[in-house]
Recover the amino acids of this structure.
């Protein structure tokens, strides 16, 4: 093979690699990820500045869309979480904050968490539909797994197949999972809940939290650190 042909082929491969890396970097940035060169890993960008204060209050007589829940229905404080499976800050909440919240407040009967999917894109909608086909007792375990593997299915060329593999440990075969994600009835129900939440709360992005107690209801847009969440919960207990 002539040298000039080899050079052209190498150049073409390098061009493809550079385009891929550029596209990957753009995608990661849009999803809230960044590459850390110190340990060669992809990490979340965490931004709590826009969640420091309540953006609005809601009357107690408004019926909020009900979703899957953790904790006692007798808990004094209910936290409504509106979350998109493709949202990096939502994934961070489930990976870092929720385990502490569950140990200190949910398992002790003080707080109930109500999770309502608020998909921001088609892939997140497919994940939300699939989660609805998982047995109720395993819903949050599956949801946490979807958040944990957000990078793999989010960057996959076949999102549905990647999500279907995640469902297998929770009782759904790949065939059943793929069929589930084509269920337009479930998808429409999720979109209806999203539309209702948008109208009642005027959600600007995810995650959005409504902290409800007999003292009132306050809406917080954006990520909340565990320390901030503790402060808000204790204020309402």
């Amino acid at each position: 093979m002539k040298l000039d042909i080899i050079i052209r082929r190498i150049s073409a491969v390098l061009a493809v690699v550079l385009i891929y890396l550029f596209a990957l970097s753009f995608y990661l940035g849009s999803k809230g990820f960044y590459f850390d060169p110190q340990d060669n890993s992809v990490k979340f960008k965490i931004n709590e500045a826009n969640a420091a204060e309540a953006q609005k209050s809601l009357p107690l007589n408004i019926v909020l869309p009900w979703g899957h829940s953790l904790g006692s229905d007798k808990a004094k404080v209910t936290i409504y979480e509106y979350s998109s499976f493709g949202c990096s800050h939502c994934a961070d909440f489930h990976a870092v904050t929720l385990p502490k919240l569950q140990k200190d407040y949910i398992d002790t009967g003080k707080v109930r968490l109500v999770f309502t999917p608020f998909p921001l894109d088609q892939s997140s909608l497919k994940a939300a539909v699939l989660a609805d086909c998982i047995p109720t007792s395993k819903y949050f375990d599956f949801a946490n797994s979807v958040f944990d593997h957000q990078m793999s299915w989010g960057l996959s060329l076949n999102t549905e197949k990647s999500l279907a593999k995640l469902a297998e440990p929770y009782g759904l075969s790949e065939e059943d999972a793929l069929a589930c994600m084509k269920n337009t009835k479930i998808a429409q129900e999720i979109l209806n809940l999203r539309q209702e939440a948008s109208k009642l709360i005027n959600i600007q992005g995810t995650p959005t939290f409504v902290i409800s107690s007999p003292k009132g209801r306050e809406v917080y847009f954006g990520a909340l650190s565990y320390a901030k969440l503790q402060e808000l919960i204790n204020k309402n207990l």
